[in-house]
Write a structure and sequence with these properties.
The structure holds four protein chains of four kinds. Chain A contains eleven helices and twelve strands. In chain A, helix 2 (49-82) packs antiparallel against helix 4 and helix 6 (287-296) packs across helix 11 (411-422). Chain A has helices at 6-36, 49-82, 89-93, 118-146, 263-274, 287-296, 330-335, 371-374, 379-387, 389-392, 411-422, and strands at residues 157-163, 166-172, 183-186, 188-192, 197-203, 208-211, 219-221, 227-231, 237-243, 255-261, 350-351, 356-357. By secondary structure, chain A is of the alpha+beta class. Chain A folds into two domains: 39-80 and 116-148, Helix Hairpins (Orthogonal Bundle), CATH 1.10.287.90; 152-425, Cupredoxins -  blue copper proteins (Immunoglobulin-like), CATH 2.60.40.420. Chain B has a single domain, classed as Four Helix Bundle (Hemerythrin (Met), subunit A), CATH 1.20.120. In chain B, 78% of the residues lie in helices and 0% in strands. Chain B is built from seven helices and no strands. Chain B has helices at 2-17, 33-61, 70-73, 76-102, 105-135, 144-175, 184-210. The longest helix of chain B is centred in the C-terminal third of the chain and has 32 residues, at 144-175. Chain C is an all-alpha fold. Chain C has a domain at 278-515: Cytochrome C Oxidase, Chain A. Chain D has two domains: 36-95; 97-127. Chain D is 65% helix and 0% strand. Chain D starts with 10 loop residues before the first helix and ends in a 6-residue tail after the last helix. Classes of the chains: A alpha+beta, B mainly alpha, C mainly alpha, D mainly alpha. Chains in contact: A-C, B-C, B-D, C-D.
Amino acid sequence: MGTGGGRAGRRGGRVVRRLSLILVALAVALIVAGCADEHPLDTLTPAGPDAEEINDLFFPVLGVAIIVFFLVQGAIIYLAVRYRARRRAAAAAAGTDGDESDDLYGDEEYPEQVHGNLRLELAWTIVPTILLTVISVFTLISLVELNKVSAAEDDLRVTVVGQQWWWEFQYHLDGDTETPPDIVTANEMVIPVGQQVPLEITSRDVIHSFWVPRLNGKKDAVPGRTHPWVIEADEPGRYMGVCQEYCGLSHAYMRNYTVVLTQAEWNEWVEGQLVDAVPLEPGDPGYEGQEVFLANCANCHVVNGVTDVNLDGVPDGMDDYDGDNGDDDITSALVAGAAPNLTHLASRTTFAGSIFDLYEDRAKRIPYLEVAERGYLNRGDLEAWIRNAPERKANDADGARGMTAFPGLSDGEIDALVEYLTTLR
Amino acid sequence: MSDVASPETTVSAPAATGHTAAAHPPTTTGLTHNKLAMWLFLGSECLLFGALIATYMFAKSRLPAGELGPNDVFDIPFTSVSSFVLLMSSLTMVLALSALNRGEERNFRVWIVATALLGGTFIAGQVYEFTVFYNLGLGYTTNIFGSAFYTLTGFHGAHVTIGIVMLMSTLVSSVRGRLSPRNAETVELIGLYWHFVDIVWILIFTIIYLFPQ
Amino acid sequence: MTTTSEPPLQLTAGEQLVRPSTSLGVLSRPKGEVGWKSWLFTVDHKRIGIMYGAAALLFLVVGGIEALLIRLQLAVPGGNVLSEDAYNQVFTMHGVTMVFLVIMPMAAAFANYLLPLQIGARDVAFPRLNAFSLWAFLAGGIFLNTSWFLGGAPDGGWFGYAPNSGLVFSPSHGMDFYALGLQITGIASLVSAINLITTVLNMRAPGMTLFRMPVLTWMLLVVQFLLLFAIPVITVALFLLSFDRLFGANFFNVAAGADPLLWQHLFWIFGHPEVYILILPAFGIMSEVIPVFSRKPIFGYPFMVFSGIAIGFMGWGVWAHHMFTSGIGPVSVAVFSLSTMFIAVPTGVKILNWLATMWGGRLRFTTAMLYSVGAVAMFTIGGLSGVTHAISPADTQQTDTYYIVAHFHYVIFGGSLMGMLSGLYFWWPKAFGYKLNERLGKVGFWVLLVGFNLTFGPMHILGLQGMSRRIHSYAADSGFNLWNAVATAGSFVIAVGVLLFFWNIGLSRRRARGAPPLGPDPWDARALEWMTASPVPTHNFDREITVTRQDEFWHRKWGYDENGKVVRIAPTAEVAHDGSAKGVHLPSPSYWPVVVALGLPFVAYGLIYNLWITGVGALLILGGLYAWVFEPPDDPEDQAHDDHHESDPSGDTGNGADGGGSQDHNGGSADGDGARPLAAAGAPAGPAAESSGNQP
Amino acid sequence: MTQTPSVPTEAAEDVQPADAETEDVAAEHDAEHEHPSDRQYVKVALILGALTALEVATYFESVHHLGDAALYALLVVLMVLKFIYVVAWFMHLKFDSVILRRIFVAGIVLALGVYLVMLTAFRIWGA
């Protein structure tokens, strides 16, 4: 950095200037290129009132921060240039290199020794205090705003349950979370547009965090606790969410989607979801698959109406959905009835913690409710998943969590199973 | 050293005269390092026992209904007696120190032995109490109350035990003739530790045992 | 200034520096000035400081390799450099290593080396405890890292959130190593904190009042108080975790009614003061370096001190801002959001005071100065992004994303580590007698600065675009590809910068061989440590220094002429000590700190594998402690010493050793063994003091 | 070393005000010598015993009509009294250096502060 003599310094300066120009150009190019990508988790493009509320607070503060940033960095650069001690020309002429550079500074020159200035100190104590007070007032206002629940008591309420490594959504259409849920689905939460949906977030094992960045901030799913939260979207669409609290091996593979439908579509969806599956009879297409399913999968997975039904009419495993698993034995909850409910698997678009598409790519252009009819099954991923899930997504080493491998299943059995699963619409 | 240091004695004499001669070690604060360090350590211990007590209170509040709880196991009259024993050991401790300060070596030993014995009685009481609780069905892993209770009182008991070991060490030193009023500070510091353990029990006794469950 | 004003301190005529002596009548005391034993058994605060620093640099390499592995894994979507399991271990150990085994011991290195020097003391208050701290820290660090070879490193994150860190969800021994290893380093930190606080409060040179202490001393003092009160909290948390894992306790067993948030509270009650434990030493270093190379005194000294104290206090009231999304309830969120916001005020005061110090100065951009100014600039960025998540609603979008990763790397790498690198360049000549190469140092700085910003700058964007922390992989369609690639490239630039630093050490060392000795004061500096020879002789100062004002040393070199202009009033060589004092009585080396520290990992291994090993460890500790306590703190043959250390006053389960400690240096011993009575505590303005400082 | 000529320093600018805290210490130090007598110690122990007896008495039915809040308050007051007596007399803090008092009080205040806030955040009171 221009440590040499006059001419060398000037030449060095030119090089530096040209270099920094190139760097700036490169940075701009990168930023443009970076922004061109699609960002399904972008926090800066809110699509719901809560996320908007947050950004309305964040951007002004960020603006202030950026101003302070430029002021401070500017001051540093200014001070560095303005008050930089000049080496003595003699030393430069002597041709000594910069190694002992301190010896090359004028030893005798000391500037005025200023020890402080009370008024300045008070100023830069008080000004930031005022600034932060203003910010904190706005923070409190939006905190209150964000904690408002406008939904009525008997409106739709969803219990969100995190589990290693997928999400379960239990629908309480009457808003009563004490009773067993009406609908249990996994990985994809379907909500009506423009309606605030109160959530109750909990977990069955470790701490997870439910986050759909474009709709709202995150809330931790803590076992033994139920945390209220809300979600609402302005426009129909498909909003990605991820688990945001480190939760073990496949933390990266714990996504979810919030699918927002128009009110009419949503009603239709609910209607479909409320229907139980019908046990297939010999001769029905998919019957062999159902046999394979009952023999291998039904230990963990529930298909309402097919896997055993209790006397109380609550499907097996649904007993557990009391929204409070304080009394349940954690380890047993991990195995029994705590795998995704597959009653309407084919109506979803993703599986395995939303990391695989259930249908091929073009299905993304098909309306959500029609995917099961018109989409082309993503057979490759689905079969691979059934055959050896741990290979596709890390599970706990001892197999206590996540889906296990089924090395015993023949190709034919897997084909049959897949065929059966497509009947679960 | 005296000859080397003599020039400076004159220089610093004015400052030194206000100071009661060599009675106090020449540290900046006038306190010995050991004493300052001991109090710092005790200050730190406040946070340690605070965390344990807070953990206990929290755990108790989270104990599911129907589980074996404090009401099922605590024997207040018994614990009151052992609390009193520990409290009185603090008295014998100060009396020991006071005896040592006066150079009454024999009395010092008597009081130290008494302190250690009272401490030992307390520990014996704790062991007995643990046994009773265990027989009532409250093991360390039984429930959250059991874990928190045994951890808190266990930590305290460990502190008392270490205190007893230190008391016995001073006794040995005294018997071997290595203790005198001049180094009474060592005993004073052990006393500080001992009293601290006592005040922790004052808290535990009230908060854990006497608060309405 | 006169000779008489600086009387020889504790000179005992005709004595050897270190004399062999016996302990327990069996073993002779370790002796000798050279060789590995002289380092292993040393109680010299300078050697201990150097070893702390060396260990921290070693662990910096380890943690750096872990960081590079993380970056390699994330360079492209779906990376497969590491398995999920290995990745989790690597990021956990990266955090643990950098926080507990790099930044903290590096701060301890500066504290050990510089605190006694800056207050004009002979050594720390308890030299043997000091040695114990070092070895316990090292034992803990090595213990933690042996987990790699014993079935897997910790995989629950450095924050170890329950119940993910419990036995059910983390069945390998990794988290046991985490809990027990941190327990051991915690003991080291606690003992060291007690020791250093006692040193600063009790062993200041005559006239060195609290408000004449250098800012670094102040910041280190605040840090030691933070450690003193914060370590017990993590100690309890780690005990609870260990008891859950090892003995089946129910503290974090949700099925038994436990609440996992208990861990979070305890961890962050420790964890937030810990953040200031990491940053304040660097603040102190910057407050030493910037004035020297600006040729001005620190601007607003009292404000610098009080803001440091304020940060220390406020650091206790903000812990739950790590838990805004944990479900602690809106009232708690609001309260902690506010308290967090205002901690920015004292921090801002510091930044502005550094700038004001540079204002109107004559800035010499040595490597040390570059690093300090760089640290101010980078820390500012970290501080500002910190304000953006003090506003809790925004934090719900940011926490656990790369935005936070960017934030705290700007604080801890950009602030702490750069500040400490500045300190290394600054005090290197003091410790080793030669300077690090300036040209290479400057190149290294710019490489590091560019690499740092290249790595962590883009993480702001990644975080706002929604990239989670602690994910071992991301999908190609998440939009994270570009900036991750840039960050990975940047991390290798950082690696080059760090390598340049190590190369610089080697190069400068080689070049320094045979070079003429460096004077005591190569930078024209201000504080007392520059007043003695470089490298600092074992006895620190030849004579006791009487302090009459801040920056005492500088004022002895420079004065003002009638116009108020600064003029030299004495050549440095005349003011500074040359380290030639002979026969200074010093505390003797000891075996026992090493023995006791060695017992700790045995206890820990035993708890994991077999209680018999614990027994061996306990025997080592107990035996070591007893030998320690009954070992005269130093030369027993010196009749001038009346040792009353027969019985050790303290000691405690968790905190292992607290030996009687040696008292015999700069005014410790009860009967003043040769220590001349100090001018009464903190009463510097005695006639003697006045004559030394102000009088021609 | 010879005397070096030096220009008078601008004292007002350079010499910081002496630190009050350290200054006090020496003066205050004399207080340390007032060791309480054994008789006083016994008296304190008797008070402690009495307070403990009071505490234990609350356990028995007779006082329960006070209601929980009053009972808690009474117990806390008794506990704090006992605590202070031991610390002040047996631990000698009443007579010792102010520095020691500050260190200990800092520990207690911090512990009380953080743990009470933590328990409040958990809403365990009144549970």
